[in-house]
Design a protein that fits this description.
- The chain is α+β, with helices and mostly antiparallel strands and 75 residues long.
- It has one domain.
- Helices cover 44% and strands 20% of the residues.
- The chain contains three helices and two strands.
């Protein structure tokens, strides 16, 4: 029986003080994770990355929505 494993990336940096930690899944793939696992007998299925909203963009979008809402209520 062949061992199977799935790889799922979660590119996020929430709560981190260092920039770039969200590139971890790409770096691990680039380093050859799948190939190394296959070399030790696993069947590897890379499921890709989970979509994680960029915190700064989410904050910016919510600020914009708030400002638009506030602007309408003043009219």
């Amino acid at each position: 029986m062949k061992k199977e494993i799935s790889i799922i990336g979660v590119p996020m940096d929430l709560g981190q003080t260092r920039r770039g930690v969200d590139m971890g899944p790409s770096a691990i793939r680039y380093a050859g994770l799948s190939e190394r696992l296959e070399n030790i007998g696993y069947t590897v299925r890379d499921e890709g990355d989970i979509k994680v909203e960029i915190q700064e963009r989410a904050q910016s979008d919510s600020d914009t929505k708030f400002k638009e809402s506030a602007g309408r209520s003043r009219r």
